[in-house]
User: Fold this.
Amino acid sequence: MSARPRRPRLTGFTVLCEGPDLVRLVGGEDLRFTLRGPGLGEWLPAFLRQLDGRRDEAALLAGLPATRAAAGGELLERLWGERVLVEGSALAAHTPRAARLRLEGEGPLRGRLAADPAQPAPGAGVGAGTLRVLCQDRLDLAAALDWNAACLAGRDPWVWASTGPASRGWVSPVFLPAAGPCLACLLERFERISPAPEVWRALVAHARAGGAVEPVSFPDPGLDVLAGLVRWKAALLAEAEPPAALFRLQVLEVATLEVSAHVVPRDPDCPACGEGATA
Assistant:
């Protein structure tokens, strides 16, 4: 899977046009960037205001006159290098769509969802689509990564719902093929913060070698909560301005009955969707 196109977002900077050849970016009192060049003031301020994370670089540059496209590309590379630009979020790239669940995986959570699958949510002018859902009752990380790769190659959004940890349940962010993080980004983050990251790598290697990954038990009321979160996310996909929680990780703690939400950043070195991705 090759790296996805970047969706640049300019945030925290005021754009000042001080003449036909001079544009400044001001981020507070101490952070300033000065851009000089013939005719910059004629097109650059408007171009910079389009860097909102919604469109990828190719689409942005295609909107420039042919004589400006090369300069626009060089400017983007400079701003990325200066860390002036950040990756656009999945929320910024969201387009409303009604979504019917396409259930995959195994375990009692899939059974809960299959008993009452979400129907397309109402929305004027919104075409029916699919939300792929992988349900897992075990920590089969290899299967999750393979499924994520298949989703990245498709067009439908996807969600991972797992009770594999046993002490907690996970409902992933809604992942989008062209923006935001993917499931591999999330699993890489889990591995980094784990007190025993070697276990994560060992689980993947074990499954890749054909070893069995055993299911774990999970309380029935907890399964109902996780199933409700999946259905809720499917409904939120139809909204023109959904809450940010749609693109966050929800964690249900069995011991405390608490549900918490967590931001999942895109990993620029993700082997599935980042600069580290291979064709």
Notes: The chain has a mean pLDDT of 88. The CA atoms of residues 108 and 137 lie 7 Å apart. The two ends are 5 Å apart (CA to CA). Residues 220-236 form the longest helix (17 residues).
